[in-house]
Design brief:
The protein is an alpha+beta fold and 272 residues long. It is 37% helix and 24% strand. The longest helix is centred in the first third of the chain and has 28 residues. The relative contact order is 0.14. Keywords: Hydrolase, Magnesium, Metal-binding.
Length: 272
């Protein structure tokens, strides 16, 4: 692995700066939409998988700013693609929670992470409406607006609040529903916010005790998973654990991580 050393803090600062600029663009686009301005919407994998002009504009802003601040780095984004390369690769989700954005709901975020050899070393998740800024640097902890984050410590799984999400394909949704229905009998309750990066941040803050979701792309988890891990969560990334399925993301407070893992396996998480 390339050793970026002390430069990781600089990468975090760049992530915060650029993500905040993109978040401002997205906030202004939402304000205009809520005020009645028409928004351009297209679809991707299904009719319910949407992309807006604001998604594309925000990602282009990120790419342009990174080209100025970090020339030579690679960029992988949800809308314009790209690939990892030697050195630093920036992974961007310009609007995580586009459906929420489209409906005028305030829960969505700009997610930006710096990765080296596929591993996140610094990242930021910025919420355009609230202005909250979640950050982490590998080995240096996770923070929310200057407050250090730490995961929760529920005494047992039955008292745990767990987040999840659903795919856009109907067949997979049916499998996810079966999995969640089993999990519901073993935990306090289940939440579905529709913003993977913020679900992972919620684990970091102790607002959720755990989180399990299938089908996330790298831009969905690159920053949020680092923030959760640096706050003390047990994290399994897609492809890392066959027992969870080939594309599951898992994050949990250590006190219930093993129990949640076992419950997920028993509820058929691998088959989702």
């Amino acid at each position: 692995m390339v050793d970026v050393g002390a430069a990781e803090t600089e990468l975090k600062d760049v992530a915060v700066r650029v993500a905040a600029e993109a978040a401002d663009l997205v906030r202004r686009a939402r304000d205009a939409m809520v005020a009645g301005e028409a928004v351009s919407v297209e679809t991707k994998s299904t009719d319910t998988d949407v992309v807006t002009a604001a998604d594309r504009a925000a990602e282009q802003l990120v790419r342009d700013r990174l080209a100025e601040l970090r020339p030579g780095d690679h960029v992988l984004g949800e809308e314009a693609g790209g690939s990892a390369g030697d050195g630093v690769t920036w992974v961007v989700d310009p609007i995580d929670g586009t459906v929420n954005f489209l409906y005028g709901a305030p829960l969505f975020a700009v997610s930006l992470a710096a990765q080296v050899d596929g591993v996140s070393v610094a990242g930021a998740v910025v919420e355009p409406v609230s202005g909250r800024c979640w950050t982490a640097v590998r080995g240096q902890g996770a923070w929310l607006d200057g407050r250090r984050l730490a995961v929760s410590s529920p005494s047992r799984l039955e008292l745990s609040l767990v987040g999840t999400g659903f795919a856009y394909q109907a067949e997979r949704r049916a499998r996810q529903a079966r999995f969640v229905s089993g999990l519901l009998t073993r935990v306090r309750d289940v939440r579905r916010a529709g913003v993977a990066s913020l679900d992972l941040c919620a684990v970091a803050a102790g607002w959720l005790d755990g989180y399990v979701e299938h089908g996330l792309n790298r831009w969905d988890w690159a920053a949020g998973a680092l923030i959760a891990a640096e706050a003390g969560a047990v994290v399994h990334l897609p492809g890392a654990d066959p027992a969870l399925g080939e594309d599951a993301t898992f994050a949990a407070a250590p006190s219930i991580a093993e129990a949640l893992y076992d419950a997920a396996v028993e509820c058929g998480v691998k088959d989702v």
